[in-house]
Amino acid sequence: MKISIPENLLPLVEAFAKEHIEAYAVGGLVRNALLNLPPSDIDVCSRLTPQQIVEIMPRYGIRVIEKAAEMGTVELHFGGVIVEHTTFRREAYAEGGEHRPSMVAFGDNLTDDSWRRDFSVNALYANLWTGEVSDPTGGIPDLERQIIRTTSADPDDIMRSDALRVLRLVRFACELGFDIEQNTWQAAKRNAPKLADIAAERRRQEFVKILLTDARYPALGRDELRSPMRGLRLLDELDVWAFLVPEFNLARGMEQRPDHHRYDVLEHSFRVAAAAPATEKLRLAALLHDVGKPDCKRETGVQYAHDKYGERISKRVLGDLRFPTRTITEVSQLVEGHMYDIQHMAKTNTLRVKFATWGRERTWEQILLREADVRGCGYDVDYVAHVWRALYDTMLHDGTPFSERELAITGQQLMEISGLPEGKALGELKKKLFLHCVKHPQDNNLARLTQLAKKR
Question: Regarding the domain delimited by 155-240, which CATH topology (the fold level of the hierarchy) does it fall under?
Fold first, then answer.
C-alpha cells in the first residue's frame, strides 16, 4: 500500500535521498492520506540524531531549530513548511502517568519506534522516497474497522505511561468518528486519575480540541460520532472533570425548573456547548455558562445570580488550565452576560446602550450564546433571542456607533466647539454625545453633533 508524499516535502525528500538515509512520514499525515483527509501535522522520523540533522540539513537550505533535542526532536523549516523530525527511539516512563518520558534511547528502526506511540492508527509509516506504507502495529485494519486501539497488546501500559493519552483517545475518536476498542477504553478509565500528573497546558490543549472536534475535518460532516456532545459525554464517563472543570461533578444530576429545562445542569451545559458555533471562545462560554449554579444554589438557596457566580468560577477554571488572559476575560464576560434581560423587560433604548457598551463582537457572541442556550433547553422556549438579533441587525443597518471613536466628531473639534479643555468635562460631553447617538443614530453627523455640543 502506498500514499502520495506531498510535493511541498520534496526538498526534504531529496536531502534524505542524497544522504542515502531512509526516512518516513509518520502519524497523522499517513493516517489522513489513507482516509482521504487533509494532512495533519507533518511529522517525519529516521535514524539520524538531532546532532546529525543539525550538521546535514543546512547544506540543503533547510533550517534546523532544536525543539527537544534530548527527546530526539527538532523542527525543519523550508519553503514555508514546518516539519517535526524525531529520531527513532524507545522510551520509558516513571510511575504516575507524566507526559514526559523518564528514559529515551535512540534506535535505528521503525518497528521499535512504533511501540512507543499511542494508537495503532497513529503508528503508520510511509517511506519518503516511495510512499510505501509500513504498519508494524496493525493500524490499517483498525482504519478499515474505524476503531481506535492502543499500539500495545497491554493498553494499560500505553495509558499508564502517559495519561494525556486518555484525552487524546477521546479526541481522535470524535474527530474521526471512530469507535473505541473496549480494552483500550477500560484502560483509559482505569488510568484517568493519572491526569493529575499532566501539566495544565497539555490538558487545556486536548480539552479545546475535543470541544472543536466537529470542526477538525469539515468534509466528514457532523453526526453522533463526530460531535462535541459525544466528546463531553465520554469525558463524563471517564470521570475526569476534576482535572478540567471540577464544578461539573456538582452539576451532574442537579435539577432545574422543569418548565424551562428538560435536562439537569450538566446535560444542559453539554447541549448548549454542542449547539454553539465552533469557536474556542463560544464553545467554552457555552459549556461554562451555568457553571455557577451549584455554588449559587448551595449558598443562596436559589439559582438567581448564578451568572455572577459563573463569571468568577469561569475565571478560576480557565486560569487553572492556563488559558491566555484574553480568553479568560472574554469567556467570563460572556458567562456573566448570558442572563441579561432574560425576561425581556428592557426597553429598546436600554438594549441599544447595552449592545453599544458591549461592542459589536461581544454583542454578536452574546446573541449566539443566547441562541445556543435556547436550543439546549430541550423545549420550544425563546428567551428573546430573536429580539436581540433583530435589534442588532437594525443597529448595524442604521449606523449606530459602537464606540466613542465612531462619533462623527473628533476630540479636537469638540474642544473648539465647546470651549472645554482636554479633561474630565470633555470626556463626559463626548460620552453624552455617544449615548445620544446610540439611541438616535441619525444624529451622528458633524452638523447635528455641533448643535448638541453647543447646548450642553
Answer: Hydrophobic Seed Protein (1.10.110)
Over residues 121-125, mean pLDDT: 97
237 alpha carbon, distance to own chain's centre: 21
Give the pLDDT of residue 428. 94
Domains in the chain: boundaries: 1-145, 155-240, 245-395, 398-454
In the numeric block, which cell numbers belong to residue 361? 463582537
Q: What CA–CA distance (Å, rounded) separates 433 from 451?
A: 11
Q: Span 1-145: which CATH code?
A: 3.30.460.10
Q: Which three cell numbers stand for residue 229?
A: 456532545
What single DSSP character describes residue 86? Answer: E
CB-neighbour burial class of residue 222 (10 A; exposed 0-12, middle 13-18, buried 19+)? middle
DSSP codes joined into one string, 46-111: ES--HHHHHHHGGGGT-EEEEEEGGGTEEEEEETTEEEEEEE-EEEE--TT--SS-SEEEE-S-HH
CA angle at residue 226 from 222 to 230, to 5 degrees? 125
Contact 327, 309 (CB under 8 A): no
Cα(296)–Cα(308) distance, rounded to whole angstroms? 9
Q: In this predicted model, what pLDDT tens digit does every residue of 227-261 receive, in sequence order?
A: 999 999 999 999 999 999 999 999 898 777 776 67
CA 131 to chain centre: 33
436 with 443: CB under 8 angstroms?
yes
| From 13-27, 274-288, 294-308, the region with the lowest mean pLDDT | 294-308
Band (pLDDT 50/70/90 cuts) for residue 304 is confident
What pTM, to 2 d.p., does this model score? 0.91
CA–CA distance, 331 with 323 (Å, rounded to integer): 10
Q: Poorest-confidence range of 13-22, 64-73, 319-328, 393-402?
A: 64-73
First to last CA, the chain: 80
Instruction: Read off the DSSP letter of residue 132.
Output: B
pLDDT for the residue numbered 103: 61
CA-to-CA separations, 168 to 7, 53, 156, 324, in angstroms, rounded: 29, 29, 15, 22
CA atoms of 21 and 47, how far apart (whole Å): 8
CA distances from 121 to 105, 125, 134, 199, 380 (A): 23, 10, 12, 25, 42
Query: Whole-angstrom Cα distance, residue 252 to residue 236?
Result: 9
Grid coordinates belonging to 178: 471512530
> Rounded to an integer, what distance in angstroms lies between the CA atom of residue 131 and that of residue 120?
19
* Domain 1-145 identical in fold to domain 155-240: no
- pLDDT top residue among 310 and 377: 310
Which of 63-72, 195-204, 271-280, 349-358 comes out lowest in average pLDDT? 63-72
Q: Look up cell 500514499; give the residue.
A: 3
Assigned CATH class of 245-395 = mainly alpha
